[in-house]
Design goal:
Pfam families: Cupin_7. The protein is α+β, with helices and mostly antiparallel strands. It has 5 helices and 11 strands, in the order αααααβββββββββββ.
Length: 209
């Protein structure tokens, strides 16, 4: 069961088709497994159609938008989970556990898939944290959007299970730990490289791109 979701504005941007391809992919993967957010997007699309048809000049304030979503949530029944082939599997052509992972640092392996999204300025990367392993302490020079594809990790914000969604920035300094008995694999979009903050690992920052 997913516990961490995209925020309201991200769902609105997704329903309006305003997100970049990799950001839309992260939300699409989350929606495939989260009936709660899927119902919210369906409602947003219906609301947008009404506004476009009848009140083209109306603009919604953030407070009004949140109020509408709150009313929608009161009566939402979880929609049935669709059975569809993994979008990510189509993109990569292989199971995520069979990819050519590259060991990065300690328990962390990575695979850069930015080239799958031509014309994008942000880095798109798969990250694998070995079961029971720890990632180096780090913060972010920009914004990082992440969805958990397999396993789970924990940091000071809690436990993030499969299909959970999280956005981090330069205010977040964390050291993720893989929990459970399987490797934790995530898909992340980075607007800028991470910044290592550990006592010794910070010496590697000039080499991180």
């Amino acid at each position: 069961m997913t516990r961490h979701h995209p925020d309201n504005l991200s769902l609105l941007e997704y329903s309006a088709g305003n997100l970049s391809e990799p950001h839309a992919l992260c939300i699409r993967l989350h929606l495939d497994k989260c009936s709660h957010c899927r119902s919210r997007v369906d409602s947003l699309e219906a609301l947008g159609a009404v506004i476009m048809d009848h009140q083209p000049k109306v603009s919604l304030s953030e407070d009004m938008f949140d109020s509408i979503l709150a009313k929608i949530d009161e009566g939402v029944e979880p929609a049935p989970q669709p059975s569809r082939e993994s979008v990510l599997h189509k993109l990569l052509g292989a199971d995520i556990n069979d990819l050519p992972w590259k060991r990065q640092l300690g328990d962390v392996s990575v695979l850069d898939i930015t080239d799958k999204f031509p014309g994008q300025s942000e880095q798109v990367v798969l990250q694998k944290l070995a079961a029971g392993g720890k990632a180096p302490a780090h913060t972010h020079r920009g914004e990082e959007t992440t969805i958990v594809l397999q396993g789970a990790f924990a940091d000071q914000k809690g436990v993030f299970n499969q299909w959970d969604f999280v956005v981090l920035n330069d205010q977040d300094d964390h050291k993720p730990v893989a929990v459970g008995c399987e490797d934790c694999i995530t898909l992340s979009i980075l607007s800028a490289p991470v910044k290592l903050t550990g006592r010794f690992t910070r010496l590697l920052n000039p080499f991180i791109r």
